[in-house]
Each structure stands twice: as C-alpha cells, then as structure tokens.
Amino acid sequence: MYIAVILITTFSSTVLCASHTDFQGFLSGTEFTTYNKKIFPKATQSDQMIVSMKYSLIAINKMDEAHGQMHLVGFIEASWTNDLLTAWAAGIDEMMIAQDNVWLPPISIHNTVETLQTLGYRSNKIRVNKDGTHTWKVGIVSKTSCKITMSHYPFDTHTCQLQFTPLGYLEDQVKLENSTSAIELTYFAENVQWWIDQTSISMSTINGASYLTFNLQISRRPGNVLINYALPVLILCILSSLSYMMPAESGERIAYSVVTFLSLVIYITMIADNIPRSSSPITIFSIYLTLMLVMSSLSMAMATLTLRVYSQEEATEIPLWLKHVTSFLKCQKGKNCCSKKKRKSKIGDSSDEWGDDEFDKEEDDESVTEEYTDWDEMQWKDVGGVLDWTFFLLFLIMTIVVAIFFYFPLAFAET
Where does the Neurotransmitter-gated ion-channel ligand-binding domain lie (predicted)? Predict the structure, then answer.
C-alpha cells in the first residue's frame, strides 16, 4: 500500500513542451538563481497565502478500538500561488522541481498520535506553472486519534477526523481551504470490515491558526460477527433449553445440561478474546453474552431441580402449594384443571348368595357417589412432567426474546 502511494504521488512526466536548453537557461537565469525559498512567496509580505487542499483516501488500514486510533493511507494535493517565481522565459509553461528548491507550506497533521512533523519527502516534486501556481502531491500514512464508542458493537458507527494545519503560521498569513466538498474516493480500496457512510470537510480557526478537517464516517460490517459469534451463542442457548425434553429416566439430562453450559462458556471466552475491548462504555453485546450465560446457568439448575422431583418416593406427600402450581400450569397447558369430579363405588351385590329366584329381578347393585379432584391422584412424576414442559417453554421464549430485545435496537439505533 505504501508503494502505491509513492507511485501515485511521484510518477509524472518531466518531459514537457520545452527543450532541454530552455530548462538550462531557466536554471542559470535570474528568475531561479535570485529566488530564495526562505522568503515568504508573496510580493507583499503581509498578504495572505491561500492553500487549497484535496485529500484522496486509498485505504483504511486499521481501526484500533482499544487505543482510539485510525490508520489511513492516502495523499493530499495542495496548490498555491508563488508570486516570486513567475514570468519565465518563452517556451516553458510548467516544470517539475524538487520540493527542497521552493517554498512549501509547513502542513502537518494536528491530531496525529505519532511525532508531529511537516508532510513531504525529499523525493517529492512540485509542479510549477508559469503563472506561479504550485501543485504538490504528497503521500500520507497516518495514525490519528479518534473518539470510538463501542456501545453498539457490532452495529457501531464512528466519525473520525484528519486535521491539517500550517505549523507556525496564523490564519492571516496562511489559510487552508478545501478544493472539494468531500474526501476523494477514486483510489479507495474497499475494506472488508468497514464501509464508508459519508465524508465531509470543514474549516475552522483555533487560537488564530487555520485548520482544515476531513471528516470520515464509517460503519462496521456486522455480518462476520453475527454469523460467527451471535448465531452460535443463540443456538447453544436453544439447545440448553431442550434438556427438559429428555426423559428423566435416561439419566443423561444433567450430563447434557453440563455439556451445553461448558460449550457456551468456552465459546463466549473465545469471543471475548476477539471482540474489541472497551470498558467505557461497555458494549451491549457483552451484556447480551453475559445474560445468555446466566440463563444457561439457571436452565442447568432447574434441570437438576426437576430430576429431584422425579426421584421423590410416591409415599412422600406432595405439598399443597406445589399442587396448586401444578394445577395452574396444567390449565395453562390446555389440560383439564383440577376441578371436582364424581365417581360411583359399589357397596354390595344385588342378588342373594343363594341365587333365589325372587331376588333376580331386584334393582341394580347399590352404589355411592363420591366427589374427588385430580389432586387426590396427583403423583410426583405428574409434577415433574408439568415442570419440564414449563421450563422448556420459559427458557426457549426467554432466549428468543432477549436476542430480539438486544439486536433490534442495536441494528436500528442511530449512533
């Protein structure tokens, strides 16, 4: 990428319309020999120098969320008018001159996280026109500070800045202006992790100095995080709730719950090592992962509780409150509630044991009608079955609702 910057900024033809003797004449003439790059390039030294700038972005190298840095590759194209280097000999319209031979505006990146220094390399050349217009292209590999808020990860959006200023000059001496309304993206190579939402340019004056700020708004591409991180966690939590569908007699329910819980713990640990670290503010995605881990823990605990219900001896009386709960849950499930019912019980035979004929046509056997409820016949396995179905639906619905509750606001929130 650095080589591409050098090629773009330095590759240009120096074979112009003039002959080599014209250039030799210029270099030995008074226009060039009397020129001094240390002199401010204005006929009237109090005049203001206007420097027009355009920034072209080539690539987003890296977004360092932990340290709040943005690494960019690009180049600027700056132009200004030099009053002291005009009116050449006939036949020369423009030429390429090494930047060390002419005056340069000491432009620097104000918000860099590296050493503050002026832009340019000794190998750079400046295109000088006969009317005094100087055009300068210089490649930049920048590392700038950027305020990064990770709360909406992986749907986070950030606005970073690249701020230029002429070191040592006030605005009434050198003023930076933008020659375009936005960052130039002609040479930009698409980034696999970020896309560019919009760009803008603003001018400002701080402590009397001129500042030109290029604003870059970027958004993360969430597909990789959703497929590789969020979806497996959701699947593991759904699998955890399926433990209640396993027969209690199989003896594998606890083993299944422990395996799914440990799988979730290991996977969340792997995710934590790969997602950007941020404590202020903490990411909502991290809260979601923690909540899913808590729900899986509760699911495992409830699976243990239901097995204890199944293991109770039939002689052990079921507490009345548990009967109430089981009855209510059966009603919600769509089964018959524990309402009062009637049944008949025989209390004797209708015929004489001797089989006398006079009693053959007597009335039917005497019986008595009893009132009873399902509570009287409720067993521990009935309680366990109702609890299994209830906990399965509860944790399944909670898993889906929590995922929707977290992801929908993240996806559609404006950051």
Answer: 32-222
